[in-house]
Write a structure and sequence with these properties.
The chain is of the alpha+beta class. It has one domain: RNA Cap, Translation Initiation Factor Eif4e, CATH 3.30.760. The protein contains two helices and seven strands. The chain has a seven-stranded antiparallel beta sheet with strand order 1-2-4-5-3-6-7, covered by helices on one side. It is globular and about 35 Å long. The relative contact order is 0.18.
């Protein structure tokens, strides 16, 4: 596994698989408040081959990203189970999972970056997968 630190991000990448330039390569974006915990979660997700790449902001609290091919349904389910298991998808005040978006990496920083949201894969109230 490779790791890289910039002034804003710390990135982990599986050295056996390379990120793709595919139109469907993207990320689930979550927030964190415990830097040491998120560092371990991001590192483990890549080391355990759940995803090929992860990164988090170089701050005590901020954003973390989990990258994969958006059309790989088995990989989507695998990473979503991992995010839920580690408490990275928060519940709303209404008792359902937050409908976080999957953002296309190719379009980051532009309008219309969202390919789909969590409710595409699961019932937000029960946590059951619907794919």
């Amino acid at each position: 596994m490779e790791s890289k630190k910039t002034s804003f991000w710390i990135t982990y990448r599986d050295s056996d698989s390379s990120p793709t330039d595919s139109d469907t390569y993207g990320k689930w974006v979550c927030t964190f408040t415990d830097r040491s915990r998120i560092a371990q979660i991001c590192q483990d997700a890549v080391a355990e081959h759940i995803i090929p790449e992860s990164k988090y902001t170089d701050a005590d609290a901020g954003q973390c990203c989990f990258y994969l091919n958006g059309t790989d349904l088995a990989a989507q389910e695998k990473v979503l189970r991992y995010l839920i298991l580690n408490g990275l998808i928060p519940e709303t005040v209404y008792g359902r999972l937050d409908n976080i978006p999957f953002e296309l990496e190719k379009w980051t920083g532009r309008a219309s970056t969202v390919l789909f949201c969590l409710d595409h894969f699961m019932n937000l109230y029960t946590g059951e997968f619907i794919i």
